[in-house]
Amino acid sequence: MTPITGVLLCLAYILGLLSTAIAWGGCGLLVIGIIVAVLASFGRRSIYRNKLPNNFWQVKPQIWLLAGLIGFSATIYIQIRTPYPGENDISKVIATNAQNPVQVVTVQGTITSTPRLTRSQRSQFWLEPFYLNVDNDISKDVTGKLYTTVPLLQATGLHEGSRITVTGILYKPKSANNPRGFNFQAYLAREGSFAGLKGKEVSLINSDINQDTNNWGWWAVRQKILRSQVHLLGVPEGVLVSAMVLGNRVVDLPSSVSDSFIRVGLAHALAASGFQVSLILGVVLAIAQRFSNRIQFIIGVSALLIFLGMTGIQPSVLRAVIMGIGALTALALERKVKPLGLILFAATLLLTINPIWIWDLGFEFSFLATLGLIVTVPALIKKLDWMPPAIATLIAVPISAYIWTIPLQIYNFGLISPYSILVNIITTIPISIISLGAFISAIAALMHPTMGSALAWLLYYPAYYLMELVDFFAGLPGAATAVGIISPLQLVIIYGLFILTCIQKWWQKKWWFVVPIMISLVFIPVWQTQASLFRVTVLAAGKEPVLVIQDRSKVLLLNSGNETTSRFTVLPFLQQQGINQLDWAVAAEPNSINSLNDWSLLLQNLSVKNFYNCSSRDRNTTITSKLSDTNCQQLLPDREISTGSTLIKRLDAQQQILQMQIQDRTWLILGEREIEKTNERLPHAQVLVWSGEKLDSSLIAAVKPEVAIAASGKLDPKTMAELQQGKTKVFLTGKDGAVQWTAKGKFEIAVETVEDKASAL
Fold first, then answer.
1. Does some domain include residue 758?
2. Domain shared by 465 and 496, yes or no
3. Which GO terms describe its cellular component (predicted)?
């Protein structure tokens, strides 16, 4: 098989997996393969030969047909390998009792991952269950995989391999309730899990108490390294050093530190991947250079496999390890390494092992960054030949990785890090020093913990000043700028232009023309949409009604929800819409400093022109100090405020009762508090939005809403009956998801048109 044939077949397989994002995509690839095979069979005719590249004719027609068949087969293979709940899967217990989807259970199982700390200060791990008891009523053997969280103190002493009994609430994971929101259900399904367990009490199974048979494993190696490095360095410096050698997936780095690194585009520094593998190979080959190529190969592969065991099996680490072994193989055989062929082989091999990884962001970012380093760094260094080679490389590496990953980042998150390239250049040397020192310290810790601690202590100031530098850039205005998400078609066109620029000399010469086109593909559609869009979105954000009004580049946000809601619902939605500034922010809860505290995260990430409801006694607080450049004032009763095409009036000084005139419709917003019996004063409104609590009959009769939107998953039967009796259309954000209304007058469930990231390109 020729190299061109191998490349074609590998690409056909990968394209086949990607084509599952499109209906009948595999059939389309098969048809294309047949058509190209027919064209190739008539390749001897000059009329065709002059129109297609010479490489095209080097591939036999049978190979093109085989490529089409492989692409089609890949779509079938990924369906076969897609996880589904088995006959005795623990999730079936929930499915058979749909009237009580949340159940208190006792589960026995084996921990299959390293327990990790969540943002809610609970410990999370994967549990492989083998026995289930439901309220002492149902007892059965079960299988499956459980996403399990337990109180932090209950997780003390737990590790991978521990056999435990957990009592808690068994639940089914939720799908995305907001546009482009996180689909927890799809995330667990990709991991082969279809249920979650919120544990309350944990105990070791008797056999593990009496005789600990799981006192060794890779978890023990990680713990030994972590404890040694934290001993003298402390937290967070010691944890950061450990994360830079083991990866943040097996090390609990404080969320404030990891958030800052992500915000400035340094997430790769905390992820075990290619950099660490290159470092390991460099050290190993430098030490073993006196030995033969065969010995170097054995030592190098052994080091990589040990590194893989310590970091855990992750797509990005596997990719780096496979490429590292490929480079060692070429060294042992005294052959020249072909990086493009090696990365294509690694991708094909990994996707054969687990085709679901095609939708794993870690896998995608890792391969795109590596591809950028392979194809773009040499070209950039050539352009920077007027600089010393070391400095040119220092600049070319972060630029190459950045430009190849930024389209995927915008597609998924709608964010860019404008300081990323500069920060990567500045931090390359300290990150290299810390990573090398952490690696040496880890080896020393395995031999003698005290020696490892002493070596790790030398990294205190590099780690400290690295975090200070990252925090400085993370605190600058626009550190994470929202540009809005792009469509799959835009993503394909942008990467298509990347590939054309790499393989065609004409496109390479016109790079100055290609770059503005790619930038325009990102910004012009978003700008046009924002300039003409009018839309009201009621987010699925807990019991507090949260509204976002987008009025032709002007944005109003009513309520922020609590900190969790702000972080995982409100802020991602605004960022994916390309919103960096709120023209009006309204806290409906009157005179409550707690409501202002809930706005803290949003105020850190967005600028606000006008903020309501700030009382004078709150102006000296930490929260309102962030509003120094903001027109901050109270929302007084019966005072009408104009916010673009929307008029807002508070109807009650003590309760969350707002009247909003949005174009030709009157909206009535009721807060989470219990509404007092003053319903005769409530005006008629076409749209009623409230927390989902039981409504008094007189309130419904007074308001007479045409549309009612409840910020809950279920409604009191009497309230539902009375609303339906008045022919009111009812939406439940906890069940239906976010609700959107446009100037056309239609209310729609927003998530119906949202593609699942697990099945979208």
1. no
2. no
3. plasma membrane
Separation of alpha carbons 449 and 447, rounded Å: 7
Point out which residues pair with 535 in neighbouring strands.
Answer: 550, 742
- Whether the CB-CB separation of 518 and 544 falls below 8 Å is answered with no
Which residues, in sequence order, are bridge partners of residue 165?
108, 203
Choose one of 373, 399, 416: the last residue of a domain. Answer: 416
Sign of CA dihedral 348, 349, 350, 356: positive
Closest CA relative to residue 117, chosen from 268, 249, 244: 249
Query: Are 206 and 342 in the same domain?
Result: no
Provide the residue count of the chain. Answer: 761
pLDDT tens, 514-548? 888 888 888 888 888 878 888 999 999 888 889 99
Question: Does 691 fall in a domain?
Answer: yes
d(CA 538, CA 136): 41
Average pLDDT of the segment spanning 191-211: 82
| Ranges assigned E (strand) in 122-236 | 122-134, 138-141, 146-151, 163-171, 195-204
Share of the chain above pLDDT 70, in %: 89
Whether 86 maps to a domain, the answer reads: no
Domain CATH for 618: 3.60.15.10
Do residues 745 and 687 both lie within one domain? yes
Q: Per 3-state DSSP, what percentage of the chain is helix, strand, and coil (rounded to 5)?
A: 50, 20, 30
Its domain, for residue 376, covers 360-416
The pTM of the full predicted model, rounded to 2 decimals, is 0.85
Q: Are residues 699 and 558 in the same domain?
A: yes
Beta strands 163-171; 195-204: pairing state: antiparallel
Confidence label for 39 from pLDDT (cuts 50, 70 and 90): confident
Instruction: Quote the DSSP letter at residue 21.
Output: G
Among the ranges given (70-79, 399-408, 540-549, 669-678), the one the predictor scored with the smallest mean pLDDT: 669-678
User: Quick one: 522 and 539 in the same domain?
Assistant: no
Query: Residue 422 and residue 131: Cα distance in Å, rounded?
Result: 53
> Is the model's pLDDT at 676 over the cut of 70?
no
- Residue range 140-171, pLDDT digits in tens: 899 999 999 999 888 888 888 889 999 999 99
The terminus-to-terminus CA distance of the chain in angstroms comes to 31
Higher pLDDT, 87 or 596: 87
Of 215, 238, 271, the residue that ends a domain is 215
Tally of domains in the chain: 6
User: Quick one: pLDDT at residue 691?
Assistant: 86
CA dist 401 and 388 (Å) reads 21
Answer yes or no: do 496 and 582 share one domain: no
Provide the token pair at 105: 């259970």
What CATH number does the domain containing 137 carry? 2.40.50.140
The DSSP 8-state label assigned to residue 718 in this structure reads: H
Q: Judge if 288 and 248 occupy the same domain.
A: yes
- Asked if residue 761 is part of any domain, the answer here is no
Report CA dihedral (339, 340, 345, 348) to the nearest 10 degrees: 140
* Rounded-to-integer distance, Cα 490 and Cα 408, Å: 10
- Whether 347 and 394 map to the same domain: the answer is no
Gap between the Cα atoms of 696 and 702, Å rounded: 10
Question: Can you list the alpha helix ranges (DSSP code H) found in 274-419?
Answer: 274-287, 293-311, 315-332, 339-353, 361-383, 389-413
Mean pLDDT (the chain) is 83
Alpha-carbon separation of residue 747 from 50, 535, 688, 706, 743 (angstroms) = 56, 10, 13, 11, 10
